Amino acid sequence: MGIKSVSPIKACNKAFYSKDEKNSKDSFYNKLKKTINTNEDENILEEINSEPTEDKEEDLLLYRVLKKDGFKLKGHSFSWVRENCNLVIFPPITAPGHLRKQFKDYISTLNLKDKEKNDIGFSIVAQYALYIKENPKETMKAYSNEAMSKLILNLLEYNEKYKKRTDKLSIIRYENTRLVLNRLLDYINTKH
């Protein structure tokens, strides 16, 4: 399986959460219209707009990243693109937007410097990339809570190798990775 890389982007919360339009379905649709300004991606506009409210913002961000980095979206559904683009991220690209957002929120609330938070996030993505390389049949083409829970448990087991190390960075990585993954697992188990 090929692994594609994308340029990092920073979420622009100001664009998503203005005081005037915070809960308006029409305002979200207008944001989509501004983002998706070609007829070739109109089907993606409708697909994202029909998603549960809690997933829309994250999937709009994902669409922007994929579009910016040249993924060919024409003639495909957004679901198809997520399942077939070979992009390795954690949580997997097929996970619902609210789960990807929860993961980012958990990372951002760690009591660490930004560099250390980025290291934790990258470490988890790298662990996931190694996991799917060693277990290609475990790639999450379609999302399920059961598969995601199993994946997190496997990543927690993989993380245990850092427990025996005594250098400060490994201890920080071990403890915070365990914390984030356990929070995400709890979220999955209580959300659904």
Short summary:
With 192 residues, the chain is mainly alpha-helical. Helix content is 61%, strand content 0%. The chain folds into two domains: 13-84; 97-191, no CATH class.
Question: Strands, helices and their partners?
Answer:
Elements: H1 13-16, H2 25-35, H3 42-49, H4 53-68, H5 78-84, H6 97-108, H7 114-134, H8 145-159, H9 168-191
Helix pairs in contact: 4-6, 6-9, 7-8, 7-9, 8-9
Helical fraction equals 55-70%
Strand portion, in percent? Answer: under 5%
The major beta sheet can be summarized as: none
Count the beta strands. Answer: 0
Given as residue ranges, the uncertain stretches (5+ residues, pLDDT < 50) are 1-22
Query: Roughly how many Å apart are the termini?
Result: 31 Å
* Rg estimate, integer Å: 17 Å
Number of H/I helices: 9
Offer a few descriptive terms.
192 residues; mainly alpha; 2 domains; 9 helices; 61% helix; disordered N terminus; plasmid
Can you tell me about this structure?
It is a single chain. With 192 residues, the protein is an all-alpha fold. It folds into two domains: 13-84; 97-191, no CATH class. It has helices at 13-16, 25-35, 42-49, 53-68, 78-84, 97-108, 114-134, 145-159, 168-191. Keywords: Plasmid.
